[in-house]
């Protein structure tokens, strides 16, 4: 007995036929590209094939990938230098600021010196006056 | 061995025209399609020059499709950023663009039949994922598994996209009748 035909067979055949024809059109498209497109594609292909990474960078990255310990040491050294630089900079800036405060103090102290000196002379004079007054009063009383 | 006569050169020669047609179908622009093919070749050389040549087909297809996807993303961003400029493009500029595209369209450089035009137009109208699935499966003859890998989706999704693409093409080309 002949098996009943699958109802989807016709659709499936139609789809296969459609797929075949669409593919055929696309093939024709690809095979008959205009000359200027073909030239540009060839130029693009040659440019891609002739691509070479910069020799020095390739050697450098090649070295890094082959010497992972060196990468670690280099990274540590770089970090150390950065830390030292930061610490040095921060301490020198502290020195700078303290030096500035010292200089400012010196300026202030120097400006007060004559005043202090005058005051001192005044107190010495006052003391001498007191002493002489005491002497006079003792003579008068004597 | 010089690069010009290397196995990779032969591989590129074999696929470059099809890659261009694929890209042009996807982006509808000749210059962008050329850029996409060149970028794909360059990525292939950079990353897979020394891999097993038997893998080149799948790798190149994946690179090509990713590059097309990147193009869509860039276009999307560009549209968002410069939407106001698009409104300011004059009619004259649009005419010039359209003219230059038509002049260099492969369709018209070939045997210029209505039949081909309709088929290519129907392909261009397909949603991108359906177009991608159809072109990869039907034209590049990748199996479902390979297509799924290239498209970055499940095999079930590939089957769905492919089936919908077929239905859409049948609907769009129904008026061609017995020619199909």
Description:
The complex is a heterodimer of chains A (142) and B (180). Chain A has 142 residues and is mainly α. Chain A has four helices and no strands. The longest helix of chain A is centred in the last third of the chain and has 74 residues. Chain B has two domains: 110 residues, no CATH class; 70 residues, Winged helix-like DNA-binding domain superfamily/Winged helix DNA-binding domain (Arc Repressor Mutant, subunit A, Orthogonal Bundle). Chain B is an all-alpha fold and 180 residues long. In chain B, 32% of the residues are buried. Chain B is globular. The chains are: A mainly alpha (142), B mainly alpha (180).
Short key terms for the protein model shown above:
heterodimer, A: 142 residues, mainly alpha, 4 helices, disordered N terminus, B: 180 residues, Arc Repressor Mutant, subunit A, 10 helices, 77% helix, globular
Give a short synopsis of this structure.
Chain A is mainly α and 142 residues long.
Total helical segments of chain B: 10
Number of alpha- plus pi-helical segments of chain A:
4
Distance between the termini of chain B: 47 Å
β-strand number of chain A: 0
Number of beta strands of chain B = 0
The arrangement of helices and strands of chain A along the chain is: HHHH
SSE order of chain B: HHHHHHHHHH
Query: How big a fraction of the residues of chain B is strand?
Result: under 5%
Measured by residues with Cβ under 8 Å of the partner chain's Cβ, the largest interface is: A-B, 33 and 41 residues
Secondary-structure-derived class of chain A: mainly alpha
Number of domains of chain B: 2
Strand content of chain A: under 5%
Low-confidence stretches of chain A: 1-10, 107-113
Question: Helices, strands, pairings?
Answer:
The complex is a heterodimer of chains A (142) and B (180).
Chain A: H1 9-31, H2 35-49, H3 55-66, H4 68-141
Chain B: H1 7-27, H2 30-48, H3 56-81, H4 83-87, H5 91-104, H6 106-109, H7 114-125, H8 128-139, H9 144-151, H10 155-172
Helix pairs in contact in B: 1-2, 1-3, 2-3, 3-9, 8-10, 9-10
């Amino acid at each position: 007995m002949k098996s009943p035909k699958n109802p989807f067979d016709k659709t499936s055949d139609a789809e296969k036929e459609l797929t075949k024809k669409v593919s055929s059109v696309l093939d024709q498209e690809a095979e008959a590209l205009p000359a200027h497109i073909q030239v540009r594609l060839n130029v693009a292909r040659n440019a891609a094939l002739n691509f070479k990474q910069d020799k020095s960078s390739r050697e450098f990255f090649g070295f890094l990938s082959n010497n992972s310990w060196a990468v670690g040491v280099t990274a540590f050294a770089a970090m150390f230098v950065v830390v030292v630089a930061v610490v040095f900079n921060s301490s020198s800036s502290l020195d700078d600021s303290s030096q500035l405060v010292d200089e400012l103090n010196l300026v202030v102290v120097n400006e007060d010196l004559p005043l202090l000196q005058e005051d001192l002379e005044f107190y010495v004079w006052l003391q001498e006056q007191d002493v002489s007054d005491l002497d006079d009063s003792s003579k008068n009383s004597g | 061995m010089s690069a010009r006569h290397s196995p990779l050169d032969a591989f590129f020669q074999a696929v470059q025209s099809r890659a261009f047609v694929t890209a042009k179908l996807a982006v509808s622009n000749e210059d962008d399609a050329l850029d996409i093919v060149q970028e794909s070749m360059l990525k292939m050389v950079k990353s897979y020059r020394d891999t097993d040549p038997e893998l080149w087909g799948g790798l190149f297809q994946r690179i090509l499709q990713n590059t097309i996807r990147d193009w869509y993303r860039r276009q999307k961003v560009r549209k968002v950023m410069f939407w106001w400029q698009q409104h300011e493009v004059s009619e004259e500029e649009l005419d010039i663009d359209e003219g230059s595209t038509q002049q260099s369209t492969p369709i018209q450089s070939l045997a210029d039949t209505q039949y081909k035009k309709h088929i290519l137009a129907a392909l261009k109208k397909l949603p991108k994922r359906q177009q991608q699935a159809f072109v990869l499966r039907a034209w590049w003859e990748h199996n479902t598994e390979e297509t799924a890998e290239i498209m970055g989706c499940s095999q079930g999704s590939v089957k769905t996209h492919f089936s919908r693409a077929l239905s859409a093409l049948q609907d769009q080309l129904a008026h061609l009748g017995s020619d199909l």
